Amino acid sequence: MTPGAGRRADVLRAVRELLRQPPARRFGLLLLLLAGFGGTLLLVPRPDPRALPHLADHLGGYAPAVAVTVGALLLVALVPRTFVTLASGAIFGPLAGAGYALGAALLAAALCFAVGRLLGREFVAERARGRLARLDGWFARQSVLGVITVRLLPVAGFGLVSYGYGTTGARVLPFLVGSVLASAPTAFGYAAIGAAVTSPGAVNWYAAAPASLGLIASAVLAQRWWRAERQRRLDIGDPHR
Length: 241
Prior knowledge:
Elements: H1 3-19, H2 23-43, H3 55-59, H4 63-76, H5 81-92, H6 94-127, H7 131-141, H8 144-152, H9 158-166, H10 172-198, H11 209-237
Helix pairs in contact: 2-6, 4-5, 4-6, 5-6, 5-10, 6-9, 6-10, 8-10, 8-11, 10-11
């Protein structure tokens, strides 16, 4: 057996062992994990913004993979997406920085969703009653527009919302697509700001134009989703309409 195959076998055994644990214990592990990430954020020193642009020179051809992977891990650890996007723009410039930040957001959303589903879904499903059950059903029915709307609400950070979605009955594909679309407007805007802070003379401010267009598109999508949801509730209340 090759070392890589051996590591995969160890991971699969660990996952199977984790699934054998009672749902309450797994949910407790999820809460402990989130608390640990939150505490770590308070202790880790902030990087010097002036040193960020020089990091790209040391990455070479590995820059895209490193940027997306490290950015995703930071988001998984509950680092605010604003900081990750600003840093990406400062290192790689507005357009490449926005692209890498969106790649990191997609990967982080998938990882957080998987962890939330593995550790918290069964616990939540067993206790979903009344309003909680209706809310869980609402998440399960959500389309891409619904995910975009929730993402645009200032309720919690990117990573925390992703973990929370995993504990619901939400479908993974609409969640991932909606997460990326909701992240796009601010990705371009914050990446442009990050690039301007570290290299003000090298920034083409037309790079920030997609941000305003994305905000308009997001507002239109949110309004359409809200009207569709209101109409659906009216139809349920009066089936003979």
